[in-house]
């Protein structure tokens, strides 16, 4: 038998909070008739037009019901490894890491796009719009796979269909995502994987919970200012 919903919430409160945020934003956009592309992230909007708020807003918005179901399912498939039940400080560490993955993946994605724009044939990437929490999820998969002890493969519940090795999870999920959602951003997902490997290397360890909270605060202020007339 599966674990009852209320027990899942108690075991993984931070994962539950992120789920509520993602679903809440999706419902808000849906009820307001706001197209996800209106808050999406593209190089042109974020860098050329300096609409930096999109780097955050885009990652908590989703295209449609299928898109958010896919990401929420993956979010909970990572819950046991990303937010271990009963471990002191696990929820705070989960939120800190998720915040850093969100910001790092956006920065890496924009940097990769800038590099790609050096080639005239890839000029279309300037206006390619990305939305969804997938970057953070791919980052978590890469991070957990890199952190796993030698000889320990770990496991990821792939959409309730099968449990696969964590090291293979990002690539299998990427293939499924591209199959189900053909216009999904390959570059965005790759950025998430690179952000996870960056975290695993320890390069962002200097960003303590305090400094991460400061980053999150100013990101929230920027979001509020962007949407306030």
Automatic annotation (TrEMBL):
<feature type="transmembrane region" description="Helical">
    <location>
        <begin position="94"/>
        <end position="117"/>
    </location>
</feature>
<feature type="transmembrane region" description="Helical">
    <location>
        <begin position="20"/>
        <end position="40"/>
    </location>
</feature>
<dbReference type="GO" id="GO:0016020">
    <property type="term" value="C:membrane"/>
</dbReference>
<keyword id="KW-0645">Protease</keyword>
<keyword id="KW-1133">Transmembrane helix</keyword>
<feature type="transmembrane region" description="Helical">
    <location>
        <begin position="129"/>
        <end position="148"/>
    </location>
</feature>
<feature type="transmembrane region" description="Helical">
    <location>
        <begin position="154"/>
        <end position="174"/>
    </location>
</feature>
<dbReference type="GO" id="GO:0006508">
    <property type="term" value="P:proteolysis"/>
</dbReference>
<comment type="similarity">
    <text>Belongs to the peptidase S54 family.</text>
</comment>
<dbReference type="GO" id="GO:0004252">
    <property type="term" value="F:serine-type endopeptidase activity"/>
</dbReference>
<dbReference type="InterPro" id="IPR035952">
    <property type="entry name" value="Rhomboid-like_sf"/>
</dbReference>
<feature type="domain" description="Peptidase S54 rhomboid">
    <location>
        <begin position="50"/>
        <end position="200"/>
    </location>
</feature>
<dbReference type="InterPro" id="IPR022764">
    <property type="entry name" value="Peptidase_S54_rhomboid_dom"/>
</dbReference>
<dbReference type="Pfam" id="PF01694">
    <property type="entry name" value="Rhomboid"/>
</dbReference>
<keyword id="KW-0472">Membrane</keyword>
<keyword id="KW-0378">Hydrolase</keyword>
<feature type="transmembrane region" description="Helical">
    <location>
        <begin position="210"/>
        <end position="227"/>
    </location>
</feature>
<protein>
    <recommendedName>
        <fullName>Peptidase S54 rhomboid domain-containing protein</fullName>
    </recommendedName>
</protein>
<keyword id="KW-0812">Transmembrane</keyword>
